[in-house]
Design goal:
- With 141 residues, this protein is mainly α.
- The chain has one domain (2-130).
- It contains 5 helices and no strands.
- It has helices at 2-27, 33-36, 38-60, 65-87, 93-140.
- Helix 1 packs antiparallel against helix 5 (93-140), helix 3 (38-60) runs antiparallel to helix 4 (65-87) and helix 4 (65-87) packs antiparallel against helix 5.
- The protein starts with a helix and ends with a helix.
C-alpha cells in the first residue's frame, strides 16, 4: 500500500505542475477573470480531492503518524489556497498583496508534497532493509 501511496503522491505533484501551467494560462487569458481561470479553479478542486484521498492511503499504508500528518498538511495548505483567493479583494493593493501569498503557498504545497513522497520512499527502503536482515538471520539459523 505504501508503494501505491507514493505513486498517488506523484500524481498530486503532477497535478500541481499542471496547476502552475493553468495559472499562467489564466493570467494571459482574455475576457472575464473567472472564465480565464476556470481550468485553474477546476484543477484546484481536483488537487484537493486527490490530496484528501491521500490521507486515507497514508493511513492504510501503516507507515506512521508522521506520513499521515505530512499528507494532512498538504490538504490543509490546499484548503488555505481557497481561503486566500476568497479573502483577497481584487483591484486593491491590499488584495494584491494577500493574493501574492497564493503563489507562495502553492510553492509550499509542492514542497510538502515532494517531502511526503520522499518520506514514503525512505520508509519503503527501511522496510526492504529490515526484510533483508530478517531473511539473513533466518538463513543463518
Amino acid at each position: 500500500m505504501l508503494k501505491f501511496f507514493r505513486i498517488w503522491m506523484m500524481l498530486v505533484q503532477i497535478l500541481i505542475g499542471i496547476q502552475f501551467f493553468l495559472a499562467g494560462y489564466g493570467a494571459m487569458g482574455t475576457g472575464d477573470t473567472r472564465d480565464a481561470f476556470a481550468l485553474h479553479i477546476m484543477n484546484g478542486y481536483l488537487i484537493g480531492t486527490v490530496s484528501l484521498l491521500a490521507i486515507l492511503f497514508a493511513a492504510l499504508s501503516r507507515a506512521g503518524g508522521k506520513l499521515v500528518g505530512m499528507t494532512a498538511g498538504v490538504v490543509g495548505l490546499v484548503a488555505l489556497q481557497s481561503v486566500i483567493a476568497a479573502v483577497s479583494v481584487g483591484g486593491t493593493t491590499a488584495g494584491q498583496l494577500v493574493f501574492g501569498l497564493h503563489a507562495i503557498n502553492a510553492l509550499m504545497i509542492l514542497g510538502l508534497a515532494e517531502a511526503t513522497s520522499r518520506t514514503a520512499k525512505r520508509i519503503l527502503q527501511s522496510r526492504k532493509e529490515a526484510q533483508g536482515e530478517t531473511a539473513s538471520a533466518a538463513a543463518a539459523a
